[in-house]
Amino acid sequence: MAEFVTIYEVGPRDGLQNEKEIVPTADKIALIDLLSEAGFAKIEVTSFVSPKWVPQMADAAEVMAGIRRRPGVTYGVLTPNMKGFEAALAAGADEVAIFASASETFSQKNINCSIEESFARFAPVLEAALAAGVPVRGYVSCVVACPYEGAIAPAAVRAVAERLMDAGCHEVSLGDTIGAGAPETIAAMLEAVFQAVPAERLAGHYHDTGNRALANVEASLELGLRTFDSAVGGLGGCPYAPGAKGNVATGALVDLLQARGFETGIDRAKLAVAEAFMMGRIARLSAG
Ligand code: HMG
Ligand code: MG
């Protein structure tokens, strides 16, 4: 039987947080429902973050309340602090994610605190989530390079990934936030992280700025990673990472995995429907 690779569809969150025009709540809900129908087991729906920092995600509770939940699908959300976690719990999130950075400057710009302070904020979130039986995913941003500091040492990534695991995360997603990675730098980073966290607990989250995200996925597959984050239509970026382009496109990722003989559980035709829907809506919004 073919080996399975899990795709974590992050388009509704990472994809839409960076769109210039705010996507209407009803369109977000329709997109998530189409993605549920397409067979994703994991969908990152929204972020419970400050609406002053990311106005695109201000409708997090409404989106959560409006989606049609398909049994077996994990609907995840970002929660940077207790305020976000409490709202996420009330909204019925199946999984929450805390997001740290391997770069001090990016941590300050993105969540307004140092790496050390971020772990102090995450501690009560982890405690409350685990007590409530809600699994916690951890992100490390800037795993290859930072938009403000340049190259980031693999040892710095390992240290943050190890802290997230030790704190109780079940999985750590490694974010090449600005898509600066190439197969060699991604492999060097992964080899360093493996000293602390095994491949089966890691996910690759590769933005495609340099058009190398698929090559980076291939390098990661070779080293044993079996979970990848991607966004429908290649949407995405981070408002606090200037120049960051979209995530690797889900359709291209599914095609690559199928060509390599992996099973993904995704209905490619239904994924194409979700993609056409969202790209059509965004084109209409941008046209004004
Ligand atoms: P702060 O200003 O230091 O926070 O921001 P604060 O505690 O001083 O609160 C300021 C205001 O925000 C207050 O409201 C709070 O109530 C409110 P006011 O009294 O002024 O009216 N507030 C909140 N509101 C709703 N939900 C919350 C929340 N927390 C505070 N959870 C904070 C600190 C972390 C809140 C802020 O910096 C923030 O929201 N940052 C999020 C930035 C973000 O979402 N970035 C994108 C996601 S990360 C990413 O894209 C990377 C990733 O994809 C991986 C990769 O590619 O590398 C994951
Ligand atoms: Mg991202």
Uncertain regions spanning at least 5 consecutive residues:
none
- Could you tell me the mean pLDDT? 96
Main β-sheet, spatial strand arrangement:
1-2-3-4-5-8-9-10
User: What count of helical segments does DSSP give?
Assistant: 11
**Which outline best applies?**
globular
Q: Could you tell me the number of beta strands?
A: 10
Distance between the termini: 49 Å
* Bound small molecules, deduplicated: 3-hydroxy-3-methylglutaryl-coenzyme A, magnesium ion
**Category by helix and strand content:** alpha/beta
What portion of the residues fall into strands of 2 or more residues?
A: 15-25%
What's the story with the biggest beta sheet? Answer: 8 strands, parallel, barrel
Helix content: 40-55%
The helix/strand order is EHHEHEHEHHEEEHEHEHEHH
Measured on Cα atoms, how large is the radius of gyration? 17 Å
Protein name: Hydroxymethylglutaryl-CoA lyase
EC number: 4.1.3.4
GO molecular function: hydroxymethylglutaryl-CoA lyase activity
InterPro entries: Aldolase_TIM, HMGL, PYR_CT
Report on the architecture of this protein.
With 288 residues, the protein is of the alpha/beta class. Helices cover 43% and strands 16% of the residues. It contains eleven helices and ten strands. The protein has helices spanning 11-15, 25-37, 60-66, 82-90, 104-111, 115-131, 154-167, 183-194, 213-222, 250-259, 268-287; strands spanning 6-9, 42-47, 74-78, 95-101, 136-141, 145-146, 150-151, 171-176, 202-206, 227-230. The chain has an eight-stranded parallel beta barrel with strand order 1-2-3-4-5-8-9-10, surrounded by eight helices. α2 (25-37) packs across α3 (60-66), α2 packs antiparallel against α11 and α8 crosses α9. The termini are far apart. Residues 14, 175, 177, 205, 207, 236, 238 line the site of magnesium ion (MG).
